[in-house]
Design a protein that fits this description.
The protein is built from four helices and eight strands. By secondary structure, the chain is an alpha+beta fold. A hairpin with a 5-residue loop joins strand 4 and strand 5. It is globular and about 75 Å long.
Length: about 210
């Protein structure tokens, strides 16, 4: 066959695609179990950090055991809810997610049992710019949420504020990330939306004690 003919070129390209496509499929199939195990380990590790659980080691089994011992899961309004029953670490958590500047951001949010305060926030997944928006994972940023008041009587988008606030020292504000305004604003937007949706579903399923 003439190696310069269109038929030869197309046949060669088809053969190359078939070989590499098959190889990729085989690798993907062979590693599915490992990928699933790594994903479960990562989620359990984030849950342990979010609920500040004690973990006996760094193996996947250690994280799984810590989660199994301290956290009870249920489905409320189509959303998985995590309730910590470890003495002194009681809280209720859920995964809040929304569009960041580049891609979707997902965080584990832990609230007090009465839903009046944020106890912790830990990032589960993000693909923001390294050194800028990706700093939402850093402790200096996430630690700001510990003990943060949720001002439910404020407008929906202002229950939690990220960035400058006209009222100094507001109990519901955290500092934004310098140079990552869009990521900070996106986080505030979907965070407030998710808090509202979670509170409505959780309160309907498990009525809360009225505020004094």
């Amino acid at each position: 066959m003439n190696k310069k003919s269109p038929a030869y070129v197309l046949s060669f390209m088809a053969a190359i695609c078939l070989v590499f496509g098959t190889g990729i499929s085989v690798v993907n199939y062979a590693t599915q179990g490992l990928l699933a195990k790594n994903a479960a380990r990562h989620q359990n590790r984030v849950l342990c950090r979010a609920f500040q659980l004690d973990v006996a080691g760094a193996s996947a089994e250690a994280y799984q055991q810590a989660v199994d011992a301290a956290i009870r899961t249920s489905v409320v309004g189509g959303r998985t809810v995590y309730e910590c029953v470890a003495p002194g670490k009681e809280g209720v958590g859920f995964v809040a997610g929304g569009m960041g500047f580049w891609d979707r951001i997902e965080c584990v949010v832990v609230l007090s049992p009465d839903l009046r305060n944020v106890l912790n926030v830990q990032v589960l997944d993000q693909k923001e710019t390294p050194g800028l928006g990706a700093r939402i994972e850093e402790p200096w940023f996430t630690d700001q949420f510990k003990g943060l008041a949720l001002v439910w009587d404020h407008p929906q988008g202002q229950r939690v504020l990220v960035g400058a606030n006209p009222a100094p020292n507001a109990a519901n504000e955290v500092d934004a990330i310098t140079g990552a305004t869009q990521t900070s604003m996106a986080l505030m937007r979907f965070f407030n939306e998710e808090l509202d949706a979670f509170r409505a579903a959780y309160s309907a399923a498990k009525p809360l004690n009225p505020e004094p």
